[in-house]
Amino acid sequence: MIEAVTKQRGIAPYFVCDQCHEIIENAGYGLAAMPQLRINVQGRTEVLHVHKGKCYKMLEDKWDGRVGSVELLRHIELLIHNSRVELSDIQKLRDNYEQIGL
Ligand SMILES: [Zn+2]
Predict the structure, then answer these.
(1) Residue 4, pLDDT score
(2) Which end of the chain is more exposed for a tag (fewer CB within 10 A), N or C?
(3) CA of 26 to the centre of ligand 1 (A)
């Protein structure tokens, strides 16, 4: 899931593990997971975010192994692409957010 977390200078969104409810601190530690039984007639389903390893295994067990997944980094790349965001804009924003402490 994505949750808003209050920081010193404001509120910022973070990926939070749908199994252990801890923040996924680094995209390299996470997966975007889609339980296949939840795909609706339009071909859509919610996306869960989990840590690799134990948390993903718990999710697989919960859904009897019928869970698709992609690396969280790949998921973010696809969101950026599908949202028509330019990578050069992201670098500018990242520099700004780091300066203001978000
Ligand atoms: Zn977790």
Answers:
(1) 96
(2) N
(3) 12
